[in-house]
Write a structure and sequence with these properties.
36% of the residues lie in helices and 11% in strands. By secondary structure, the protein is an alpha+beta fold. A hairpin with a 2-residue loop joins β3 and β4.
């Protein structure tokens, strides 16, 4: 499975001044946008999904990308994302309790469902961009 997600801490930096084109990234997780961002990879016997998300918060942008990837996965299966949440409600509740107890943090439905439905799969690639806009930084995954 492919997910546009969080990048590494040593990302290349592209310097721009405020007021430049709105869609010019000031930082990104790779020197160039990978081909798989626009063209979902295909391989015999495997299915890949690419999710996109954006927000002022890096974590929320990543969560939005995960939710979008799961929505595409659900559409492929012929069900709605809310149906996936309902189908896995007991597992979601258990996962939330485990994470709250061990990591002391809240888990979104998107994160919980992604952990449950992607067991046995892997995130093969992640890419993000950071934009400096007049109202602050925005992240696009």
């Amino acid at each position: 499975m492919v997910l546009l997600g969080a990048g590494c801490a040593t990302a290349p930096v592209v310097r721009v001044r405020r007021g430049m084109e709105q869609d010019t990234p000031v930082e990104r997780s790779a020197p160039a946008k990978p081909e798989w961002v626009a063209l979902t990879p295909t391989a015999p016997g495997h299915k890949s999904f690419v999710g996109e998300g954006q927000d002022e918060s890096q974590d929320k942008a990543k969560d939005a990308a995960i939710a979008d990837m799961l929505k595409r996965y659900a559409e492929y299966l012929g069900v709605d994302f809310s149906v996936l949440v309902q189908m896995h409600q007991q597992e979601i509740q258990q996962l939330r309790e485990d994470i709250t107890h061990t990591e002391r943090r809240v888990v979104t439905d998107a994160e919980a469902v992604s952990r449950i439905v992607t067991r046995g799969t892997e995130v093969r690639a992640q890419y993000w961009e950071k934009y400096d806009r007049s109202d602050g930084y925005h992240y696009r995954y």
